[in-house]
Amino acid sequence: MSDDLPDSLIPYDEIVQEALRAVVGRVLGEVERSGGLPGSHHFYITFKTQAVGVDIPKQLAERFPDEMTIVLQNKFWDLKVGEDAFGVSLTFNQVASHLYIPFAAITAFVDPAVNFALQFQAQADEMPEPHEEAENDMPQVKAEDGSNVVTVDFGKKK
Q1: Looking at the 3D structure of the chain, how many domains does it have?
Q2: pTM of the predicted model, to two decimals?
Q3: Which residue intervals of 5-126 are DSSP H helices?
Q4: Any alpha helices (H) in the chain, and if so which ranges?
Q5: Exposure of 97 by Cβ count < 10 A (0-12 exposed, 13-18 middle, 19+ buried)?
Q6: Domain extent for 34
Q7: CA 58 to chain CA centroid, nearest Å
Q8: Quick one: what percent of the chain has pLDDT higher than 70?
């Protein structure tokens, strides 16, 4: 048996990364809905400061030109979680700042209170190239008389 596996035509790595980023969104959404962190939970969230969609104050972008870690523990407010991103306000050197971070920009999520950590591959900053919509043939579905069996015919259109 060969160790040389063919390249997958299905982007499994991207699918898994997207699913794990959804975990971060769900956790932050629970914190938003409940109005705060439960128990001793707190989060370290690392993200790419130059990633598409990241909106942070200029002085933070200059100080952290590649990657930055924020801590959500005691002093944060205005947490708003969306489908693809979250926003939060924090203080840096006594200055209040609002940050907007797409989940795609996150490279690490850690909750040290329960020894939980997720590490992500940085996603490309480029937008995918435009392409035509798929035009797959639609399967023909026929119900059999008097039963719950459904036949699906994936044959070519005639």
Answers
A1: 1
A2: 0.73
A3: 12-34, 58-63
A4: 12-34, 58-63
A5: middle
A6: 12-123
A7: 24
A8: 75
Contact yes or no for 139/154 (Cβ under 8 A)? yes
pLDDT tens profile 101-132 = 999 999 999 999 999 999 988 665 544 344 34
Q: How far apart are the C-alpha atoms of 76 and 110, rounded to whole Å?
A: 17
Which tokens belong to 39? 């128990």
The beta strands (E) that lie in the chain are given as 43-48, 67-72, 77-81, 85-92, 95-102, 106-111, 116-119, 140-143, 150-153
Tokens of 137: 């043939």
Residue 109 near residue 22, CB atoms below 8 Å: no
Contact residues for 23 (Cβ-Cβ < 8 A; gap 6+): 109, 118
Question: How many angstroms separate the Cα of 47 from the Cα of each of 28, 42, 69, 111, 146?
Answer: 15, 16, 6, 15, 57
Tokens 């130059």, residue located: 50
Task: Report the half-sphere exposure of 87 (CA within 13 A, side-chain side).
Answer: 10
Is 111 in contact with 84 (CB distance < 8 Å)?
no
Which amino acid, 19? A
What CATH number is associated with residue 36?
2.30.30.220
Q: Is residue 93, in this structure, part of any structural domain at all?
A: yes
CA-to-CA distance for 43 and 45, rounded, in angstroms?
6
Residue 10, both tokens: 């299905």
Quick check: is 108 in a domain? yes
